């Protein structure tokens, strides 16, 4: 590897997989294949694997509750119950990560003890939030990686949205920082094998983008998940003129995805055999609100409509047919066309 030296391993933190911290086996498999071509490895710390597993189990339990509720209603309507999904435990999730190619880096007893000490003594990545000390998990996974790498960060690329925790831990140990990418899209900036894509590669990228975002699998729910819009604070910043004094309550939101287009030049990374580019997805949004009328006798309903867009960077692998479960939108931006806003009473 000219310029950056030999890479021993790429290290994944949990936030590699977005705000919902749900692992993507396809993403792990793609990056494992890239590492394997360069005699490198893909590492996931055991502590991070526990967190990923817990999120999967938690989501499965939520879905199971919803299915049971749905089945109660189906029986009430006179229909047979649907099959409830089998439970998934944490060991099964971690096994899937390993089968996709990840090396699960173990947490030994000494690292665990030192991580707890960091939290109690507020050292390294530890902090105090509303009188509660936190940081043991961060200290533990970072320490486990350093121990596994013979006491330093040489040859490692950390992919984490929490570079501060890595820096604080390395500083407390008196070792040099590793190379850090805040997300998967940034890795290529560290590999130094990226150049503007040629015409054929650019066409290939545009074709894959259109297949993904115009295909039957792209629903409003998939788009909300991909763009991390499930949390209201990530929504479009827009003034609909219905402040808290108006007593309107949001009842439902519909996001209808439109066409996606590639913005600007596509980049080709020879190390990972991937193509990256910025895409823009046009969407139509409907927000439905309700309140009691001024006499409190009957509800009033009102819908707001506006055109918006989602823009972000996507990385697709040349050797793989892209799937929605294997992509992330990074450096995402949201925007609204102000002239498009209108409302109607229902």
Descriptive overview:
The chain has 346 residues and is α/β, with parallel strands linked by helices. The protein has 9 helices and 13 strands. The chain has 2 domains: 9-191, Rossmann fold, CATH 3.40.50; 195-345. The longest helix has 32 residues, at 46-77. It is globular and about 70 Å long.
Shape: globular
How many runs of DSSP E, i.e. beta strands? 13
- Total count of domains: 2
Helix content: 25-40%
Q: What is the number of helices?
A: 9
Order of helices and strands: EHEHHEHEEHEHEHEHHEEEEE
Give me the secondary-structure category. Answer: alpha/beta
* Percentage beta strand: 25-35%
Unreliable residue stretches:
none
The largest sheet, given as strand count, sense and whether it forms a barrel, is:
6 strands, antiparallel
